[in-house]
Amino acid sequence: MRCPPVTCYAVLWLLTLVSGSWGQVNRLPFFTNHFFDTYLLISEDTPVGPCSFGMSRDPLCKEGSSVTQLLARDMDNDPLVFGVSGEEASRFFAVEPDTGVVWLRQPLDRETKSEFTVEFSVSDHQGVITRKVNIQVGDVNDNAPTFHNQPYSVRIPENTPVGTPIFIVNATDPDLGAGGSVLYSFQPPSPFFAIDSARGIVTVIQELDYEVTQAYQLTVNATDQDKTRPLSTLANLAIIITDVQDMDPIFINLPYSTNIYEHSPPGTTVRVITAVDQDKGRPRGIGYTIVSGNTNSIFALDYISGALTLNGLLDRENPLYSHGFILTVKGAPS
Ligand SMILES: *[C@@H]1O[C@H](CO)[C@@H](O)[C@H](O)[C@H]1NC(C)=O
Ligand SMILES: *[C@@H]1O[C@H](CO)[C@@H](O)[C@H](O)[C@H]1NC(C)=O
Ligand SMILES: [Ca+2]
Ligand SMILES: [Ca+2]
Ligand SMILES: [Ca+2]
């Protein structure tokens, strides 16, 4: 419908007048999101986004999902502009001015910072209002346990009784709940040592023997108890077994049987007796003595060298000597 120019001018003039008088009492916009009254929860694994919005200079930037959308009302239906203020908040959060959509600028880490107070703003081009929101960073299981006081190494004597606690490993995990609760195990299990899964206490479960094994290299697995994606860390535990004098000496090159000519001069070496300590760690020297059978002390045995020598003259016709000799000798740790 065409309107005559004069009428249109009149209507337009009237509207301008009305608007002009009411414009003196502009009403400021206000936020309507409920989280301003409570808190806003953002999971620490929320991706940074979006690349096209210029939040990230990373060429490999993946499109993230938005954190939330700011909502506001303006009673005058003025066009609104959203924003975020504060140096720290602006490093972590970006707001699309027209839509109020909030994005992360850089990844969150609950273990570093679990809470933010962020001030958002909305403007109707005539005035700005700001409101603070408490942002809580939600946990995900994103840390594996960490072992403390490594390297792990312990020396124990070979006669350490079964059941003796010999070492404690300690790993902690900063995540919350099950994802921060650590269990220990040997990987693979050891027949000689057990580890308490909750406390990390290592105990002996089978008799040890230095003469068989002098050291054990065990791998401890610390795993958190997250249901869906448990994370684990390995550590080495060296257990060094030390020798205890728990072995008798043994004679070597047995049996000992020797022929001697009857006229051999005194001082002739008949043979050398040798015994060794079966303790391998610090084997002791052996002292040699004749226990029995040394008729008339006809033989001498050197305590240190084990050399058996003639101490007198042998005579086959002497009935005491004609059947030979059976000497019993002793080797004992000296
Ligand atoms: C384990 O290490 C942590 C961090 O050093 C410490 O706070 C904790 O007390 C340790 N736990 C044990 C059982 O030693
Ligand atoms: C540690 O033990 C857990 C639970 O048995 C297992 O799921 C995980 O694969 C082990 N970790 C490694 C590094 O082998
Ligand atoms: Ca307004
Ligand atoms: Ca964890
Ligand atoms: Ca975490």
From TrEMBL:
SMART domains: CA. PROSITE patterns: CADHERIN_1 (PS00232), CADHERIN_2 (PS50268). Keywords: Calcium, Cell adhesion, Membrane, Repeat, Signal, Transmembrane, Transmembrane helix. Residues 1-23 form the signal peptide. The keyword tRNA processing does not apply. It is found in: Membrane. It is a single-pass type I membrane protein. It holds the Pfam family Cadherin. InterPro entries: Cadherin-domain_protein (IPR050971), Cadherin-like_dom (IPR002126), Cadherin-like_sf (IPR015919), Cadherin_CS (IPR020894). Residues 64-147, 148-251, 252-329 form the Cadherin domain. This is Cadherin-23. It comes from Apodemus speciosus.
